[in-house]
């Protein structure tokens, strides 16, 4: 379906639909900026978890993604296993901000 057709079906003009799409893109960037600002205060291991999840770009269940990523990083020796859970929880809070 073409953009103009989709916009008409939704009751929006093409210009209104375009503005809505651009606005949504700006919100996504603002949310990512908030997540990145939050991540700046994380420990090095928390930052590693945050970065790995963000790089994956997966939009699935955040808890599962963070858990799987944290396990992978811990098992490969990239982060400390003893603090993995607390770092994952802190990173998840920042990731929630980046996704909201």
Condensed summary:
This protein has 100 residues and is mainly α. The chain has five helices and no strands.
Spans where pLDDT lies below 50 across 5 or more residues: 1-10, 16-27
Instruction: Please tally the helical runs, counting DSSP H or I stretches of 4 or more residues.
Output: 5
Helix/strand structural class: mainly alpha
Distance between the termini: 28 Å
User: How can the largest sheet be summarized?
Assistant: none
* Quantity of strands, as a count: 0
If you compute it from the alpha carbons, what radius of gyration comes out, rounded to the nearest whole angstrom?
A: 18 Å
What overall geometry do the principal axes of the alpha carbons give?
globular
Portion of residues in beta strands equals under 5%
Would you tell me the overall average pLDDT? 80
* H and E string: HHHHH
Helix % is: over 70%
Search tags:
disordered N terminus, mainly alpha, 100 residues, signal, 5 helices
Topology:
Layout: H1 3-9, H2 14-39, H3 44-56, H4 62-75, H5 84-99
Keywords: Signal
Signal peptide: 1-30
Tell me what the structure shows.
This protein is an all-alpha fold and 100 residues long. The chain contains five helices and no strands. The chain has helices at residues 3-9, 14-39, 44-56, 62-75, 84-99. Helix 3 crosses helix 5 and helix 4 (62-75) packs antiparallel against helix 5 (84-99). The protein is globular, with a radius of gyration of 18 Å. The two termini are 28 Å apart. The model is unreliable at 1-10 and 16-27 (pLDDT under 50). Keywords: Signal. Residues 1-30 form the signal peptide.
């Amino acid at each position: 379906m073409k953009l103009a057709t989709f916009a008409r079906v939704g009751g929006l003009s093409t210009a209104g639909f375009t503005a809505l799409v651009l606005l949504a893109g700006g919100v996504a960037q603002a949310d990512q900026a908030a997540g990145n600002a939050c991540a700046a205060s994380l420990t090095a291991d928390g930052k590693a978890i945050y970065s790995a999840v963000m790089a994956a770009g997966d939009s699935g269940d955040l808890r599962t993604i963070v858990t799987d990523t944290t396990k992978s990083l811990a098992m490969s020796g990239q982060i400390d296993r003893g603090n993995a859970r607390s770092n994952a929880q802190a990173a998840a809070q920042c990731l929630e901000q980046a996704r909201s």
